[in-house]
C-alpha cells in the first residue's frame, strides 16, 4: 500500500484562503467544492492493474492542489471487495470488473452510481526471448508449457476462463494467483513460461517480458468502474477523487497506460 499526498483545490474551500479551482457540472477535472478540512485523508482500494496509472494520477493531483492525503490499497478486486464487506476502512473502490463492484453495490456500500473509467483485455506475457516458443493462445494448452493464471474469482481469472472458452481450449496452470501482478511476477522471475495478464501489464513491464497478442482477447473485455463508498468519513473528497479519475486528465493517463475507453 502506498500513500501519496494529492490535491483538491476543487474539493476544498477554506475560509482563510482563496479557492484554487472551479467546479464544472460537465465532468471536467475540477470536482465539486466541499468544506473538507485541509488535513483530510482518504483510502482508495484499487485493482492491482491500476497501480501504475493511479500512482501517476496521484502525483499529478498532488502537484496541482496539495492538501489531501490519499492512501492506496492495491490488490485483486475480489480481495478488495471482501475487505470492504468485512468493514475495512475505505473511501473509494476501483474494480477491474463490474462483477465485484456489483457485490459492493448489492450490499449498499456504494454511494451513488459507479462510473466506468476504463476497459482492458488480456495478453500473453512470456519471459524475454520466449523460451517456450509461445506464439498463440493454443500454445498455453500444451502440458509442457508452464502457465500461470489468475484465480477464477479474480477479474483477470474470469477473463482467462472466457478466452479459454472462446479459443476452445483448456489450460492447466501450474499456479493460480490472487492478482494479475502476481502472475506477471512469476513470468518475470522465470518461474513460468507464460502468463495471461492485461495488455496494460505487458506495456508497463517493458523489456522484462515479451507480449504475445491473440485475437480471442477481443471477445472478453473487462470494464473498470470507480465509486465513492458509503462508509467514507469524507464523502465529498471521495467523490472528487473518483470524478478526477473519470475526468479528462484521468482518462488521458489511463489511455497512455494502454487502457481502452470505457
CATH architecture of the largest domain, by name, is 3-Layer(aba) Sandwich
Could you describe the largest sheet, including whether it forms a barrel? 6 strands, mixed
Topology-level CATH name of the largest domain? D-Maltodextrin-Binding Protein, domain 2
Shape: elongated
CATH superfamily of the largest domain: Periplasmic binding protein-like II
Number of helices, counting only DSSP H or I runs of 4 residues or more = 8
> Beta-sheet strand percentage?
15-25%
Amino- and carboxy-terminal Cα gap: 26 Å
Strand order of the largest sheet: 1-3-2-4-11-5
- Helix content, binned percent: 25-40%
Main CATH class of the largest domain: Alpha Beta
- Note the run of SSEs as H and E: EEHEHEHEEEHEHEHEEHH
- Summing up helix and strand content along with how strands pair, one would put the structural category as alpha/beta
Count of all domains: 2
* Uncertain parts: 1-36
Tally of extended strands? 11
From the alpha-carbon coordinates, what is the Rg to the nearest angstrom?
A: 19 Å
Signal peptide: 1-21
Membrane topology: Lipid-anchor
Keywords: Cell membrane, Membrane, Metal-binding, Molybdenum, Signal, Transport, Tungsten
Organism: Aeromicrobium endophyticum
Summary keywords:
262 residues, alpha/beta, D-Maltodextrin-Binding Protein, domain 2, 2 domains, six-stranded mixed sheet, five-stranded mixed sheet, 8 helices, elongated
Amino acid at each position: 500500500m502506498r500513500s501519496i499526498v494529492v490535491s483538491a483545490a476543487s474539493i476544498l474551500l477554506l475560509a482563510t484562503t482563496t479557492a484554487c479551482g472551479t467546479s464544472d457540472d460537465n465532468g471536467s477535472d475540477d470536482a465539486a467544492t466541499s468544506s473538507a478540512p485541509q488535513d483530510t485523508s482518504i483510502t482508495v482500494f484499487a485493482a492491482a492493474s491500476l497501480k501504475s496509472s493511479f500512482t501517476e494520477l496521484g502525483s499529478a493531483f498532488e502537484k496541482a492542489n496539495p492538501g489531501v492525503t490519499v492512501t492506496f490499497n492495491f490488490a485483486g478486486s475480489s480481495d478488495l471487495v471482501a475487505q470492504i464487506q468485512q468493514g475495512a476502512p475505505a473511501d473509494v473502490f476501483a474494480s477491474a470488473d463490474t462483477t465485484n463492484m456489483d457485490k459492493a453495490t448489492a450490499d449498499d456500500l456504494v454511494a451513488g452510481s459507479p462510473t466506468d473509467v476504463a476497459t482492458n483485455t488480456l495478453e500473453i506475457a512470456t519471459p524475454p526471448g520466449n523460451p517456450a516458443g509461445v506464439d498463440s493462445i493454443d500454445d498455453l494448452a500444451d502440458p509442457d508449457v508452464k502457465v500461470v493464471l489468475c484465480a477464477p474469482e479474480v477479474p483477470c481469472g474470469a477473463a482467462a476462463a472466457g478466452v479459454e472458452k472462446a479459443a476452445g481450449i483448456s489450460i492447466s496452470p501450474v499456479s493460480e494467483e490472487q492478482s494479475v501482478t502476481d502472475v506477471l511476477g512469476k513470468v518475470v522471475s522465470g518461474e513460468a513460461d507464460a502468463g495471461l495478464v492485461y495488455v496494460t501489464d505487458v506495456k508497463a513491464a517493458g523489456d522484462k517480458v515479451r507480449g504475445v497478442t491473440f485475437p480471442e482477447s477481443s471477445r472478453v473485455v473487462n470494464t473498470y468502474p470507480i465509486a465513492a463508498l458509503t462508509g467514507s468519513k469524507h464523502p465529498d473528497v471521495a467523490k472528487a477523487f473518483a470524478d478526477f479519475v473519470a475526468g479528462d486528465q484521468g482518462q488521458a493517463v489511463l489511455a497512455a497506460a494502454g487502457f481502452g475507453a470505457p
